[in-house]
Amino acid sequence: xxxxxxxxxxxxxxxxxxxxxxxxxxxxxxxxxxxxxxxxxxxxxxxxxxxxxxxxxxxxxxxxxxxxxxxxxxxxxxxxxxxxxxxxxxxxxxxxxxxxxxxxxxxxxxxxxxxxxxxxxxxxxxxxxxxxxxxxxxxxxxxxxxxxxxxxxxxxxxxxxxxxxxxxxxxxxxxxxxxxxxxxxxxxxxxxxxxxxxxxxxxxxxxxxxxxxxxxxxxxxxxxxxxxxxxxxxxxxxxxxxxxxxxxxxxxxxxxxxxxxxxxxxxxxxxxxxxxxxxxxxxxxxxxxxxxxxxxxxxxxxxxxxxx
Length: 308
Description:
The chain is mostly helical. Helix content is about 80%, strand content about 0%.
């Protein structure tokens, strides 16, 4: 079994890879609703787009939770609990991603191939993704290879923690980039002028939050170069974490704000859109901050009990 530091690095790289795939769908789900031809789709497919959007939000929340858990609950160190949580989060995050992929394929096929072919195509892609992402690994001979159940927690060096924190920035930043690209392009569409003033205000506020988040996420790079001349300093790590954690919250709020705008445009019911967006807000709050803070408090209690 590789050392735990290598396993944490691999997990962060894999989470980043999954986020890069998610960012494309993230921008697509928001952008599609503002296209002129979207209103010509059957109501069922428009609702399917809403389902895909909620699935992408779930995937993004699960992926963004790993950097928060690493820094809040584990202080940036390599622990068996982090490996277990992040592995499960990545595994679960792929499931709603399959639903979103299949939904988008069905929406793309329907105008040209008809409802039946679209449904078959979407279902085929969902089954194929599940087979490749879950079925093949589950049947691999590696699953039957004996392994050690526990790995030793390690207090990582300052250099390793800085490298991993910078990797976590690259996990978070793609989502902000994809969202900002949609937000700017949406304002230039004809449909933007037709939505309610409340929705316009929510969208513009969300755009401002994403810009602030991008500034925060890029700040550690300049601090590392200008203030620390590229050296590994404790202040660089502290600064990076202090920029990244609030930036994740800002991105989550922006995602929820634009989800409200999108859902209200499709559903046509402000209350239902607010309820669904509120449920997403609760999920993000728990994943990004609630669960990591609770895990840190449990760890602190165990440490105090062991010391006493």
